[in-house]
Amino acid sequence: MVEHSHQEGQLVYAAAGALAITTERGTWVAPANRLTWTPPGFKHAHRFYGETDVRILAVPAELCGELVAYPSVFAVSALVREVLLALTDRTETRPGAYDRLRAVMIDELVEAPQPSLHLPEPHDDRLRAVTDRLHADPSYKGTLAELGRAVGASERTLSRLFHAELGMSFHRWRTILRVHHGLIHLTNGRSVTETAGACGWSNPTSFIEGFTEVVGQTPGRYQADLRNDRP
């Protein structure tokens, strides 16, 4: 991944496959029902997974104030998807047609972004040592107390830091991390059962429940949509 920034805003959509965007605020994974947003000036890097069909749309700086002022992910409605495909597939045949279509899309995206697939990253060295360990091995089943002993911090201190720095519990952060990795495995064609084991769930049922709660659809439905959306 190459870190870079833009003077304009940037919307990136994987019409097929999945993408991840990393910024100083953490990482978002966007399957085909999500759209990443990066405002002007934010350093970021993208990574793509599976058989992707990526659409990139620049948003002029003067229009960026209509959307949130920080990197985020939006849900993609049927209307937003069709507008994105039209803006990135077609040649403009009438003056102002692109501007009108883009205005419709921005109106649709003004609603609050989707926070569920955002994985924030810490600044505290002890907490970063814990999250680095879990990034390296999402299937690690150790408790927060065991991780604390490895990094020289108490379970209570780490629990407080998770809430203070990342705005969520240790369990929630690890669940989202595992779902991120699960999305990548599923996009690359691994089965639900294989993915559950590789990402640390004790059984496929637990994985399906956790994945559905975060992503909004079951792993099986996600893979079926991937097949249907493949270019």
From TrEMBL:
HTH araC/xylS-type domain residues: 128-225
Protein name per the record: Helix-turn-helix transcriptional regulator
InterPro entries tied to this protein: Homeodomain-like_sf (IPR009057), HTH_AraC (IPR018060), RmlC-like_jellyroll (IPR014710), RmlC_Cupin_sf (IPR011051)
SUPFAM superfamilies according to UniProt: Homeodomain-like, RmlC-like cupins
Keywords, comma-separated and alphabetical: Transcription, Transcription regulation
